[in-house]
């Protein structure tokens, strides 16, 4: 398994925000993590990325405890945050070439021009970052996340604010990474249609617990409703009763 989570718990003071969370993911699998605000999605992702220490449980990403991940391990992990701050005067190709140089001791980075083609930014290669549109900026965020050819990619609300065309093109990019590159992808999203289209498996997190896991069709059938939205709402409402 690329990712294994077993009995994960997280406590802040007297408040436990994650309770016995367990799941796994294989190579090339796309997992969507759904849940209301405050469910624990961001905390879970931050623990898996090695940015936050857990209170209890076993976590392995690429066979390593993220809390002990070294630079070689980090070179195999891609992260796309909700927002990214950098100098707007960087030109797109220059930034990707510069960032790729950091991976060279541990991996073969994606050549900047090939990466620009892959994310649909070849025409913007010489533009300054501050001149990019919102959709182009998000494509660059993904390029930054995958410049080191990661084995696993974490996407946090990847298409927030996208127009329909940009969202469609982004979904095609994610599918390509999973199918063609074998990249394991874990994404958090509030967009149920996005989860339905992209994910091989959907995890519903509520009040710090995984309350359901399966394909969109399986969740719909289990809830005996007509849509993923109805299934999701039924699950979350039941948890809060």
From TrEMBL:
Main localisation: membrane
Subcellular location(s) of the protein: Cell membrane
Domain ABC transporter: 3-232
Membrane topology: Peripheral membrane protein
PROSITE patterns xrefs: ABC_TRANSPORTER_1, ABC_TRANSPORTER_2
InterPro entries, A to Z: AAA+_ATPase (IPR003593), ABC_transporter-like_ATP-bd (IPR003439), ABC_transporter-like_CS (IPR017871), ABC_transporter_ATP-binding (IPR050763), P-loop_NTPase (IPR027417)
GO MF annotations, alphabetized: ATP binding; ATP hydrolysis activity
Keyword Cytoplasm carried by entry: no
Pfam family, one: ABC_tran
Example GO BP: response to antibiotic
This protein's name: ABC-2 type transport system ATP-binding protein
């Amino acid at each position: 398994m690329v990712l294994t989570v077993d009995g994960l718990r997280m406590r802040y003071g007297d408040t436990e925000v994650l309770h016995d969370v367990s799941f796994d993911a294989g190579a090339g699998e796309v997992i969507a993590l759904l849940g209301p605000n405050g469910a624990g999605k961001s905390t879970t992702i931050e623990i898996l990325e090695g940015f936050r220490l857990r209170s209890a449980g076993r976590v392995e990403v690429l066979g390593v405890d993220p809390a002990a991940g070294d630079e070689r391990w980090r070179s195999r992990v891609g992260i796309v945050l909700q927002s990214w701050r950098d100098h707007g005067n960087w030109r797109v190709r220059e930034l990707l070439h510069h960032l790729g140089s950091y991976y060279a001791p541990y991996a073969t980075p994606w050549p900047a021009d090939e990466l620009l083609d892959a994310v649909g930014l070849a025409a913007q290669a010489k533009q300054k970052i501050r001149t990019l549109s919102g959709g182009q900026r998000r494509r660059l965020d993904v390029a930054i996340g995958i410049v080191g050819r990661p084995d696993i990619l974490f996407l946090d609300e990847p298409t927030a604010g996208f127009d329909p065309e940009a969202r469609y093109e982004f979904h095609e990019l994610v599918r390509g990474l999973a199918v063609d590159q074998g990249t394991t992808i874990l994404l958090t999203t509030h967009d149920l249609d996005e989860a339905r289209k992209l994910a091989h498996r959907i995890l519903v997190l509520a009040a710090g617990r995984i309350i359901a896991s399966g394909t969109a069709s399986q969740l719909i059938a289990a809830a005996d409703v007509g849509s993923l939205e109805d299934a999701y709402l039924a699950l979350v409402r039941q948890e809060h009763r």
